[in-house]
Amino acid sequence: MSEVEEPMRLVHLLRGLTVELDLFGAEFASRNGLHPTDLRALIHLLDASRAGEVVTPGRLGEALHLNSAGTTGLVDRLERLGLIRRERDPQDRRRVRLLVEERAMELGQGFFGGLIGDLLAEMRRFDPAELATARRFLEAMTGVVTAARQDGREEAAGPTPARGSS
Amino acid sequence: MSEVEEPMRLVHLLRGLTVELDLFGAEFASRNGLHPTDLRALIHLLDASRAGEVVTPGRLGEALHLNSAGTTGLVDRLERLGLIRRERDPQDRRRVRLLVEERAMELGQGFFGGLIGDLLAEMRRFDPAELATARRFLEAMTGVVTAARQDGREEAAGPTPARGSS
DNA sequence: GCAACTATCTCGCTGATCGAGAGAATAGTG
DNA sequence: CACTATTCTCTCGATCAGCGAGATAGTTGC
User: For a surface tag, which of A40, A49, A91, B140 has the fewest beta carbons within 10 Å of its beta carbon?
Assistant: First the structure.
């Protein structure tokens, strides 16, 4: 337990936080008959809806790294649950627009809304300078992860010694 | 636009960070022929190994919210990949100890080692006071999520708690 | 020794996702 | 106007992670 450990505790805190958020999402999902993928899709759809963007199955599948078949299945599930609705794009009739139903908004609101409210309330206990520091910190960490993600892709054939073990 | 938006950006940053970390893990997993669940299991096993704790299929399945059949399948996969080894507990021969192989350590190192190093390096750009603030912030946010998780459970449990069926 | 309990594994099944390709609409070319 | 290439989405069949129920082997108490 030396001073060098402090940053390491932050690393574990970050990991712990993501685990908690994942669990939170997973529990919410299963409680509502959703799969983790469905929840990710719902978040994406609500974000896009709020931003006024049109989402098609193609875009959604791309965002979630699903192929077309998987995307169709996902959209089927969400539609069956009454969370979204398919509608052909009148401009380009090959496309299908995914429209978010009221129920999806309520679902997202009723659950994430509560969490976000709690998070915001907790943030009020920090002064603006501290929040600015936290933000800078989070942005820096996010940047590192994003960069590592791309490095990893490029090095995909690199430092993978794990061979010949059995 | 307004100052009220600043905390909201922090909320989105938190979410964005978890998404990035998830993607990082998912990409690493698929690159190594692992499933997301396998990676979570690996993390759990490595943590326990470092802490000197004995992990059994039962404990592992409990930690990952898998039932016994799913756990057996998971352990089969990890064993087939040469990441762990089964060994009967000589004290209580009903039990199976899961022993982490060298290869799993290397894999974990190749995965986290690089990322953690990068995160620590980035943290050096913050002074101790800032890191302390970041830590306080992360702890506060984690606490909120954890609390919300339990609240959600209790609300959903309702009239029939039916605990013990995890 | 018998009964109750515990830890793990086996079996059959559901369902999310994949690869391949079909169907339908658009855009470009002559 | 056909004719072809392109772009979206959906369908079909297969794969495999995870579930529920029950089997198997080991432990503990009477």
Answer: A91
**Residue A148 near chain B (CB below 8 Å):** yes
State phi, psi for B32 to the nearest 5 degrees: -110, 20
Q: Which residue has the tokens 């039990």?
A: B95
With distances taken from each CA to the C1' atom of nucleotide C9, the closest residue turns out to be B72
Q: Does A152 contact B20 at a Cβ distance shorter than 8 Å? A: no
Interchain pair A144, B115: CB under 8 A: yes
Answer whether B120's CB lies under 8 Å from A7's CB: yes
DSSP one-letter string for A72-104: HHHHHHHHHTTSEEEEE-SSSTT-EEEEEPHHH
Mean pLDDT (chain A) is 87
The model carries a pTM of 0.85
Closest-CA residue to A137 (of B29, B152, B141): B141
Q: Is the CB of A86 under 7 A from strand D?
A: yes
Nearest-CA neighbor of A125 among B143, B13, B147?
A: B143
Stretch 63-122 of chain B: residues touching chain A, C-beta under 8 Å: 65, 82, 101-103, 106-107, 110, 114-116, 118-120, 122
CA distance linking residue A89 with residue A33, whole number of Å = 29
In sequence order, the 6+-apart residues with CB closer than 8 A to the CB of B84 are B45, B75, B78, B98, B99, B100, B101, B104
